[in-house]
């Protein structure tokens, strides 16, 4: 018995040892010398023991048969890449392969055995043992003495992971853009002990000055610890926490990564380890907070900014949103971060020898409020009025744009005019921080360039042809003249007959407002004594009317009740502003009546009634038509907020105030009947306006009201368009308030429930989810979190990616 036990122990020891070795090899998923991966097998990769990370060939989105050698998160639907090798030299065929060689290198070759990339060696005094993809996201090549010959953590690209460190000589380099892994133009690095962000010149690859720095200049390394905190270690060994600031990471339930994005923002992200299938990476922390402002706050040489030359940058949730100014368009419509080009090309013949403009009448100015190009002034006028600023830029051949500071906002009451020429750099748009207006000199739409060729006196045949043609054309001109005279006489007679027909209709045109001025009797007759009521609203009752054909047949006549006893001047002022607004998505004002105590407005008649009757009728409207209507409303509000001469806050956006013409184009009505805002005065404190369910929370808090109240109301209307349900009359017990129910469906990943009886919308659930995210951004309780209507329009059109929205009911939600 004893001998049997003694004989058994060695055997057991051997078994345990073999089992341990096998277990170690299995856990580490060891890669042996000679093992290789081929791009031809998309399912072939080397995974970490837990399966969290994978190493292998990853196709480049939108590029057929182009691959990069990469490491990515393998368990989540978004296969987010965290490291890549051959960023400047992608594999171009499926027969490319990467192999672990006997020399301890990973070598990537194409089908013709051409070397595309090779790993460097940290040490050369050890023989290779194996390689492994670790659960930390680090790919290592190990030697026989257990040291690492090479590891991906020592050669980061644009991302660092928990347990990874960035030494004083290390750096992160952004990708070029979302679909390209080529070297980008932003860098995170140490410079004389300071951790900084800087832009890189794309031609020389030399760095510009930093646009953001972290802490003081005594740092030695950046540490992303395993708990999920990003820290800076000082030279004395002390640690400074950078992120997150207001949250405790939970590495047991979340993945984390910190990425220098292609647009220059260093961002910490999290993702649940057990996703339900619809999550995306959430932003926990980012720097700088406003990258657009970072490029204008410092006058040092910083580069051309996040959006390139001749463009405006507006930070939205930390990410730059790029737009082209009037008279410019994107260099690359698929990549708005590359800058803008001038639509009109000037020629040497446009300028006189003294530098002044030839035929300045060919140009006009288009203005953009809250916009500035802070650098590269070549001329400054002070003091200067707007007229002087426009005239100086108009006559100056070099001037492409003039920046005007409002004289009423300066300390001494004098305005300043800065003249700038192309290219324009570091453009900045900020409604809350800028008191300047950009005036862009653009050619008039009817301006044309005439080029006259000089005659050749030596060519007699050409002169003869010209003479013959002149005679023929002259004869034809005489004949055409008499023909036009005869036709004009006929039309004149018909016109006189029409005037006699209309002699009882006493409207006239108001030269100040360019609108028709009707008498009360005119409109009483047109509406058959106000017989057919179309609807009632906060400002009065609307009736259907019919005018003689020369006025456009059917009209909608609104009898204003709240203006009945107000002064004529105030009414005329409001009518003038409304009459000057012209947009495809606004109801057109045709005329008005201002007689005694009667105040009436005459509008175009909308054949298909209100959006409310369209959405909440018996038949459900088509999905595509609803999308078209949502986009139209957003464009109309963008015009009211940013593009018309006098900024207008509607204050009562709801389906009853959205009308539909005969082609179901959405048109906003009742605009301009609330208090109007003068330029550069974007806040007002006033009584609560609007309709229950659509009113923004700030109305009840006695806080300044801005255009963001319309954004909130639009968000509610957008939810109604998505669901075809009223915001406070949803036919479900648990969904009394539509905004709360919609966010609950979104947060629980059941977006399809919002459109469960709508087959068209269910088949386009990706678009539906995008619209829902836009709506949730719009109904944020904190107005500063709501996007501008211009941004909303770009989101709906697909020009701007819609980030994951926070809970709208928490005022201090983090982005």
From TrEMBL:
One GO term in the molecular function aspect is: carbohydrate binding
Q: Which reaction does it catalyse?
A: L-seryl-[protein] + ATP = O-phospho-L-seryl-[protein] + ADP + H(+); L-threonyl-[protein] + ATP = O-phospho-L-threonyl-[protein] + ADP + H(+)
The signal peptide annotation in the UniProt record is 1-27
Q: Give the way it sits in the membrane.
A: Single-pass type I membrane protein
InterPro entries linked:
Bulb-type_lectin_dom, Bulb-type_lectin_dom_sf, G-type_lectin_kinases/EP1-like, Kinase-like_dom_sf, Prot_kinase_dom, Protein_kinase_ATP_BS, Ser/Thr_kinase_AS, SRK-like_kinase
Q: Which family does it belong to?
A: Belongs to the protein kinase superfamily. Ser/Thr protein kinase family.
Q: What is this protein called?
A: Receptor-like serine/threonine-protein kinase
Q: Which organism is it from?
A: Durio zibethinus (Durian)
